[in-house]
Amino acid sequence: MSTTSLVLTQLLLQVVGLAVSLFAGLFVLRFLLQWARAPFRNPIGRFVMTLTDWGVLPLRRVVPGWRGHDLSSLAMAWLVETAGVIAAVLIVSAPLVTEGNLVPLAFIAGFIEMLRTVAYVVLGATLGLVVLSWVNPYAPMAPVFEALARPFLQPFQRMIPPIAGIDLSPLFLLLLLQLVLGLLASLKSGLLGIHL
Predict the structure, then answer these.
(1) Rounded distance, CA 88 to CA 97, Å?
(2) Among candidates 107, 119, 90, which has minimal Cα distance to 188?
(3) Are 120 and 24 in contact (CB under 8 A)?
(4) HEC string of 26-71?
């Protein structure tokens, strides 16, 4: 492969990856906002609903909710991630993927990627909560970050008491999320035989 082809391939992969990450992240965020009972009357909530209604509302006819959770949002995230994996594999010609096993492997890798997206959203919410707790705890977005991060922080808060009034649970959650992200990336690379 020539240098020009390699550069174009990398550029195309980055464009596909960015688009997939954006849309899958929005669908995951929609699910997590509903799951965490986060307030939707804020700029993030309205933005997410506006940009995801096109996919979620039609899919609700096929994918029903479960115990009050909107599974169609997660299903859309999974489909977007799967489509992204298929596109990336076709761009780079992955060695462990053939025409016969492309779709099954892509669905598995897409599920792994969806889990990574969940981890990234929780990581972002945790960082947002930490920053706002120091600089502006009454910011309009603080309740959203609080609602998203709190369910994941609570197990650590029960085990790790504050030290001199400082809550260290976000630090441990962030470390765990980094481990999870690394593990999921390794799983996907092993599955496809390439690092995407």
Answers:
(1) 11
(2) 107
(3) no
(4) HHHHHHHHHHCCCCCCCHHHHHHHHHHHHHHHHHCCCCCCECCECH
Hey, where are the domains in the chain? 3-192
Helix spans in 36-168 (H): 43-59, 71-92, 102-135, 142-159
What's the pLDDT tens digit per position in 34-92? 999 888 788 888 899 999 999 998 998 888 878 878 899 999 999 999 999 988 888 88
Q: pTM of the full predicted structure? A: 0.89
Task: Give dist(CA 142, CA 8) in Å, integer.
Answer: 41
Pairwise CA distance, residues 105 & 34, whole Å: 30
Q: How far is CA 127 from CA 53, 73, 106, in A?
A: 27, 23, 31
State pLDDT tens for residues 153-180.
999 999 988 888 888 999 999 999 999 9
And the tokens for 85? Answer: 């994996």
How far apart CA 71 and CA 79 sit, in angstroms, is: 12
